[in-house]
Design brief:
By secondary structure, the chain is α+β, with helices and mostly antiparallel strands. About 45% of the residues lie in helices and about 20% in strands. Strands 1, 2, 3, 4, 5, 6, 7, 8 and 9 form a nine-stranded antiparallel sheet that branches. A hairpin with a 2-residue loop joins strand 4 and strand 5. Helix 1 crosses helix 3. The radius of gyration is 22 Å and the shape is globular.
């Protein structure tokens, strides 16, 4: 079993599990250390807990409760991969504290959860600008909604809460070059991370992390017009900790590389014309 920690924050850890066990490997008893929802990405395995047995395949969800013992078996195929969100008790309480739901064990592939599981995988691979902690909270909240059969009431956002979201956005924009985490921003407006995420997204139409990334991209586009600065320096100055991540994110957003954007800003009309033609040309059916 190979375990890679993708994120570790106060209220959430995200782990990538890659198991190579097969039918000839003897199972053993393990214990859940925290509340968890794990998306089975590939492969298959058996899960035994609380006197129940589940066969999990790609798209299934494994649900864990702290202190519960379980056993995984691989009677049919060798290996599986899971993306696991480990949640604190405070976060579980803010999402919706239903202790019975967290002893569900295994959840079959459901479209309501699979689409978020695949989004989470895209985030983990750097193919989306949603935050990994954000998609983890949404994934856990959706599990609670689906399992309980109840959706949260969509109440009108009060004026003070709208002001909170706007103030948070202004605060983040002014500090977008700094490392800002969801919990950090939430504390600034006196909310739990989960409630802040829901409020911010509802009022402004994007998640806090998406807003932060777009603030960085906006500043980067402005700085790219300055020939005196290297692209690497700009990437780090606006808040990206990795050059390849900056180039990939900028290209995904603008449809053009930072270097190409700089050339276009310098007056290379051919680049802009080609970009415009791609945008308006009919796509083959």
């Amino acid at each position: 079993m190979t375990v890679t920690t993708l994120l570790h924050r106060g209220s959430m850890s995200v782990l990538d599990y890659r198991c190579t066990a097969g039918p000839s490997d003897a199972p053993f008893v393990e214990e859940h250390k925290s509340f968890s929802v794990s998306y089975v990405r590939t492969g298959s395995f058996g899960y035994r807990a609380g006197g129940k047995t589940f066969d999990l395949v790609a798209g299934s969800i494994l649900v864990g409760h702290p202190g519960d013992e379980y056993m995984c078996t691989h009677e049919h195929v060798r290996g599986d991969e899971c993306l696991s969100f480990q949640l604190s008790s405070d976060l579980v309480a803010s999402i919706g504290d239903r202790p019975d739901l967290w002893r569900t064990g295994g959840v079959p592939p459901l479209p309501e959860l699979m689409v978020l599981g695949e989004l989470a995988q895209a985030v983990a691979e750097g193919r989306s600008d949603v935050g990994l902690d954000e998609v983890g909270m949404l994934f856990a909240a959706r599990f609670v909604e689906v399992s309980s059969g109840r959706r949260r009431a969509s109440a009108e956002v009060r004026a003070p809460d709208r002001r909170r979201a706007v103030e948070a956005a202004l605060w983040m924009d002014a500090r977008s070059h700094e490392p800002i985490h969801l919990e950090h921003a939430a504390r600034e407006v006196g909310l739990s991370a989960f409630h802040f995420l829901r409020l911010f997204a509802r009022v402004l139409g994007v998640t806090p992390h998406q807003y932060l990334v777009r603030s960085r991209l906006r500043r980067a586009a402005r700085l790219l017009t300055d020939e005196a600065r290297s692209i690497t320096d700009i990437a780090f100055e606006v808040g990206f900790g990795d050059l390849s991540n900056f180039v990939r994110t900028f290209h995904r957003a603008a449809g053009i590389s930072p270097r190409g954007f700089r050339k276009a800003a310098r007056g290379d009309r051919k680049i802009l014309q080609e970009r415009l033609l791609r945008a308006i040309s009919p796509r083959p059916s």
